[in-house]
Amino acid sequence: MTATHTAAHAEDTEVRTAPAKTATPRRPVLDGRRLRTAGFHLSAGALSALWLLPIVLVLVTSTRTFDDIAAHGVGSRPHSFTLDGFRQAWVDGGQQRALINSMLVTLPTVALSLGLASMAAFALSRYDLPFRRVLLLLMLGGNLLPPQILLIPVSKLSEVLGIYDRLYALVGVQVGFGVGFYVFVLHGFMRAIPGEIQQAAVIDGASPWQIYWRIILPLARPALAALTALSFTWIFNDLLWAITVLRTDSQMPVTASLIGLQGQYVSMWNVIAAGSVIAAAPTVAVFLRFQRHFVAGLNLGAVK
Amino acid sequence: MALIGSARRSRATRVPPVVLAFVLVPLLAEGFWVFWPALQGFYLSLTSWDGLAAPKFVGLGNYSEMVHDAVFRTAAINTVLWLLLFGGLSAALGLGTAMLLQKERRGIGFYRAALFLPVVFSLVATALVWQAMYQPDGLINNVLEAVGLGGWKHAWLADQDTAFYAVIVPALWRQVGYVMVLYLAGLKGVDPVLYEAAKVDGATRWQQFRHITLPQLRSVNAVVLSVIVIDSLRSFDVVWALTRGGPYHSSELLSTYMYSTAFQSLRLGYGSALAVVIFVLAFGVIVSYLVRAFREAD
Question: Angle A167-190/A148-160 helices, nearest 10 degrees?
Answer without folding.
Answer: 130
